[in-house]
Amino acid sequence: MNSQYRLIAATTFVLMLFSGIITAKIANWKVFSNRAGWRIDYPAEWDTGSCRGCPDPRAPGVFVDFMPHEGADLNGSVMVSPLRDKPGNVGLDAWFSEVERTANLNPRSSQHRFELNGKAALRVRYLNSAAGGTEMEAVYVVAGSRTFSIEFSGNNRGTPLETLSNYPVFMRMVQSFEVQIR
């Protein structure tokens, strides 16, 4: 078994171990629905927002930030973004290859393809060496031709994402992400 698969197996074990803890820690969750046809669960005590010129985060075509309240545990936040649609003449493998390379220009340290609520998905771990080795993770989801990114980034340089207290929250949010195919 190579090191990439060991990392994936270890990550899965840790997430299964912490899933009960996170459910107890964050008892109340809300559902965020975007008018573009996607939805995601998020902790009720977290804030949502978007860009300054985007006063309505539920509007189609805008990114949405999910962040712990000021003064709360700030070990990571989540952002959901619509990406460019997958061209009809490009296969899914080629599309994922292009998206993982162009949506985030940082070096990739691992990737894992899976299915998320009936949709093709790709989890990619990036390393931002310019920010002192900060890790970030993106889950790319393709629903029909529509493509979305669900990203988690931490604030601690050189700290693996799995050790951040909000990483299991991110994983639960990812598991809840759904898209209506048009």
Outline of this structure?
This protein has 182 residues and is of the alpha+beta class.
Molecular structure report:
It is a single chain. With 182 residues, this protein is an alpha+beta fold. The protein has 3 helices and 10 strands. The protein has helices at residues 3-25, 92-102, 167-176; strands spanning 29-33, 38-43, 46-49, 64-68, 77-83, 108-116, 119-128, 134-143, 146-153, 178-179. Strands 3-4-5-9-8-7-6 form a 7-stranded antiparallel beta sheet, sandwiched between helices. It has a 3-stranded antiparallel beta sheet with strand order 1-2-10.
Rg measurement, Å: 16 Å
- Count of individual beta strands: 10
Total helix count? Answer: 3
Please identify the structural class as seen in this structure: alpha+beta
**How is the largest sheet built, in terms of strand order?**
3-4-5-9-8-7-6
Low-pLDDT residue spans: 5-10, 12-24
The secondary-structure element order is HEEEEEHEEEEHE
* Helicity, as a percent range: 10-25%
Reconstruct the topology from this structure.
Blueprint: H1 3-25, E1 29-33, E2 38-43, E3 46-49, E4 64-68, E5 77-83, H2 92-102, E6 108-116, E7 119-128, E8 134-143, E9 146-153, H3 167-176, E10 178-179
Antiparallel strand pairs: 1-2, 2-10, 3-4, 4-5, 5-9, 6-7, 7-8, 8-9
Which structural traits does this protein have?
182 residues; 24% helix; 10 strands; 3 helices; seven-stranded antiparallel β-sheet; three-stranded antiparallel β-sheet; 36% strand; alpha+beta; globular
